[in-house]
UniProtKB/TrEMBL annotation:
GO terms for biological process: adherens junction organization; calcium-dependent cell-cell adhesion via plasma membrane cell adhesion molecules; cell migration; cell morphogenesis; cell-cell adhesion mediated by cadherin; cell-cell junction assembly; homophilic cell adhesion via plasma membrane adhesion molecules. GO terms for molecular function: beta-catenin binding; cadherin binding; calcium ion binding. The gene is CDH12. The lineage of its organism: Eukaryota, Metazoa, Chordata, Craniata, Vertebrata. Residues 1-25 form the signal peptide. It comes from Pongo abelii (Sumatran orangutan). It is a single-pass type I membrane protein. This is Cadherin-12.
Length: 794
């Protein structure tokens, strides 16, 4: 190392090439491969017109990674042309790792690495160096940048980042079938040596699989690997650097390879004959047994389809595949009978649904087995001779009449007697009865076809030896009709004939209805009654198809002479006994136009002017109704107005509470109301002069003549009250009538004018002053009147 550094220093002296010359030890690689020529200009120490010397500058150092020595690793040396070895130059270092990873001798410029470096962590460091005058602290030359690269060593083994791997390959694949490609990664420098050159190999998994040493592709190495023999394989793969040479580092991974299934095996029955036992009472559609063929394949390749080979019993049984277990389920298509046949034998074929054409040469992918079924005897319920019994009976048949019978028998080996009874759920009204031993059915009530035409109920048969074994059959009884109702004319019962009708004209088609049977089962005949056949205005023409026509016999009809005609029609049916009825049809004479269209059939229309249509008549009537409504409304308004006027009149005999806004005159106001209504009725009739206003002349001193008929005013008030209570025309509002009646025991006697004198003679009102201060205003008023009366004698 010292020799090489000396050579570097010698070259620097010989070439005098630059200001900074890095010197480095290269134990494994010479520096001559990476030198670069730089031109460095010195700052200000030489005239700018002088030529600057140039030299070789190696601006790249190398340092070994993972250095484990006890001393700091020497990297290289920095030197300036201005350094004369007098100790006046100071070297400084800055940049990546300066001071922490790399140090520099300030006097000599030697650079050392003070810790171990990892190229995979940081491959290079960029630093800057400068020579500074110790005394002035000024740079002697510009700052120079250089790189220190970490030289790689083989310290990382290859790694499978995606491992472990899982792969599949179809069974029975040929040699060389692709399985999977693996890849290992080496963190070492791929550009330096063989540290990152990886080679693949199989450590475990031969001879079934092989791997390409360069690409890592795994392929099959043996033909016809069978999944049914071995399904899972575990292969150990190794990746080794240094090209697989001795001393290289290696990494491993596991590849789990599964053989996927193909349909290379046909289904096989484990035995050639299957024995099944089935009770004869098994219901149709029930599963009576299972058989299974074995297929070593998996998934859809193991799906099996079962079929019954045509032959004995093929029409009685069916077979389907259970999707979960792949078993063949045998089902019953028809009922079994031990007494008829005790055993059945047929063949079942099992085959795959999904075939692989590559394996057809191996043989047919199906198998056949024989199924033998033994029918077991079961104690069964009685069996009716018919699935449905239909019977007929006439209505009104006497109670107890036998109308039919049912038959059921026990078909088992030990035959048992049978008992019959009616299911009460289907014949709740008990119209029929059945003989429990013979099975004969009889009526229990009178039947009416018009009420119920058909009866449907069930009969149950049970074995005497085992009453729990029962069977049921439906009975349908049709009630036959007896001709008991006469036919009648269908609607309508009323028709019309035009006044201008001609003889032989059909004015109405009539038909008949019979409650006994539908018209399709009867033949009806129509004719006139004997009394109507004498000089008839109309006749009946029988069309022989259960209809008839009403035919005119006159040339024209007049509504003025006769508006309605009544035509009796006799209708007979064809049943036995013959039933007939007389039906009266009403024929109305109507006015028609020339085409026979009816215009009017009302009697009032006879008196209307000729030429007015029905619409015009309706319009005229509507106008009349409107006018009448207007007149009635006008009269009602006038009466209402007059009534309001009477209510406000001074002659009104009642005192009404009337609302008004002006203020009254107090006690001096004597014009507010008419008090005449409070007078004694007899006094009013004798003296009509009003006493509720001031007198025109003074009267003589008041004298109270005796009243001939001293009628109590309460009777009068009560009478008026009763009249108003029962009066339906009384107004709906409340009115206040005031009657000044003090009663017979008053000290001041009556204040009303009812009991006053019946004459208009002058009165003396001086007594008012004796009544106290309350009547002072009244006394002053009448006293003032007396003072201005010239006739008054003072």
């Amino acid at each position: 190392m010292l020799t090489r550094n000396s050579l570097s220093l010698l070259l620097w002296v010989l070439f005098d090439g630059g200001l900074l010359t890095p010197l480095q030890s290269q134990p494994q690689q010479t520096l001559a491969t990476e030198p670069r020529e730089n031109v460095i200009h010195l700052p200000g120490q030489r005239p700018h017109f002088q030529r600057v010397k140039r030299g070789w500058v190696w601006n790249q150092f190398f340092v070994l990674e993972e250095y484990m020595g006890s001393e700091p690793q020497y990297v290289g040396k920095l030197h300036s042309d201005l350094d004369k070895g007098e100790g006046t130059v100071k070297y400084t270092l800055s940049g990546d790792g300066a001071g922490t990873v790399f140090t520099i001798d300030e006097t000599t410029g030697d650079i050392h690495a003070i810790r171990s470096l990892d190229r995979e962590e940081k491959p290079f460091y960029t630093l800057r160096a400068q020579a500074v005058d110790i005394e002035t602290r000024k740079p002697l030359e510009p700052e120079s940048e250089f790189i220190i690269k970490v030289q790689d060593i083989n310290d990382n083994e290859p790694k499978f980042l995606d491992g472990p791997y899982v792969a599949t390959v179809p069974e029975m694949s040929p040699v060389g079938a692709y399985v999977l490609q693996v890849k290992a990664t080496d963190a070492d420098d791929p550009t330096y040596g063989n540290s990152a050159r990886v080679v693949y190999s199989i450590l475990q998994g031969q001879p079934y699989f092989s791997i390409d040493p360069k690409t890592g592709v795994i392929r099959t190495a043996l033909p016809n690997m069978d999944r049914e023999v071995k399904e899972q394989y575990q292969v150990l793969i190794q990746a080794k650097d240094m090209g697989g040479q001795l001393g290289g580092l290696a990494g491993t991974t596991i590849v789990n390879i599964t053989l996927t299934d193909v349909n290379d095996n046909p289904p096989r029955f484990p035995k050639s004959i299957f024995h099944l036992k089935v009770p004869e009472s098994s219901p149709i559609g029930s599963a009576i047994g299972r058989i299974r063929a074995v297929d070593p394949d998996f998934g859809q390749n193991a799906e099996i389809e079962y079929n019954i080979v045509p032959g004995d019993g093929g029409n009685l049984f069916d077979i389907v595949t259970d999707e979960d277990t792949q078993e063949g389920v045998i089902k019953l298509k028809k009922s079994l009978d031990f007494e008829t046949k005790k055993a059945y034998t047929f063949k079942v074929e099992a085959s795959n649904l999904h075939l692989d054409h590559r394996f057809h040469s191996a043989g047919p992918f199906k198998d056949t087995a024989t199924v033998k079924i033994s029918v077991l005897d079961v104690d069964e319920p009685p069996v009716f001779s018919k699935p449905l019994y239909t019977m007929e009976v006439y209505e009104d048949t006497p109670v107890g009449t036998i109308i039919g019978a049912v038959t059921a028998q026990d078909l088992d080996v030990g035959s048992s007697a049978v008992r019959y009874f009616i299911d009460w759920k289907s014949d709740g009204d008990s119209y029929f009865t059945i003989d429990g031993n013979e099975g004969t059915i009889a009526t229990n009530e009178l039947l009416d076809r018009e009420s119920t035409a058909q009866y449907n109920f069930s009969i149950i048969a049970s074995k005497v030896s085992n009453p729990l074994l029962t069977s049921k059959v439906n009975i349908l009884i049709n009630v036959l009709d007896v001709n008991e109702f006469p036919p009648e004319i269908s609607v309508p019962y009323e028709t019309a004939v035009c006044e201008n009708a001609k003889p032989g004209q059909i004015i109405q088609i009539v038909s008949a209805a019979d409650r006994d049977l539908s018209p399709a089962g009867q033949q009806f005949s129509f004719r006139l009654s004997p009394e109507a056949a004498i000089k008839p205005n109309f006749t009946v023409r029988d069309f022989r198809n259960n209809t008839a026509g009403i035919e005119t016999r006159r040339n024209g009809y007049s509504r003025r002479q006769q508006e309605l005609y009544f035509l009796p029609v006799i209708i007979e049916d064809s049943s036995y006994p013959v039933q007939s009825s007389t039906n009266t049809m009403t024929i109305r004479v109507c006015r028609c136009d020339s085409d026979g269209t009816i215009l009017s059939c009302n009697v009032e229309a006879i008196f209307l002017p000729v030429g007015l249509s029905t619409g015009a008549l309706i319009a005229i009537l509507l106008c009349i109704v409107i006018l009448l409504a207007i007149v009635v409304l006008y009269v009602a308004l006038r009466r209402q107005k007059k009534k309001d006027t009477l209510m406000t009149s001074k002659e009104d005999i009642r005192d009404n509470v009337i609302h008004y806004d002006d203020e009254g005159g107090g006690e001096e106001d004597t014009q507010a109301f008419d008090i005449g209504a409070l007078r004694n009725p007899k006094v009013i009739e004798e003296n009509k002069i009003r006493r509720d206003i001031k007198p025109d002349s003074l009267c003589l001193p008041r004298q109270r003549p005796p009243v001939e008929d001293n009628t109590d005013i309460r009777d009068f008030i009560h009478q008026r009250l009763q009249e108003n209570d029962v009066d339906p025309t009384a107004p709906p509002y409340d009115s206040l009538a005031t009657y000044a009646y003090e009663g017979s025991g008053s000290v001041a006697e009556s204040l009303s004018s009812i009991d006053s004198l019946t004459t208009e003679a002058d009165q003396d009102y001086d007594y008012l002053t004796d009544w106290g201060p309350r009547f002072k205003v009244l006394a002053d008023m009448f006293g003032e009147e007396e003072s201005y009366n010239p006739d008054k004698v003072t």
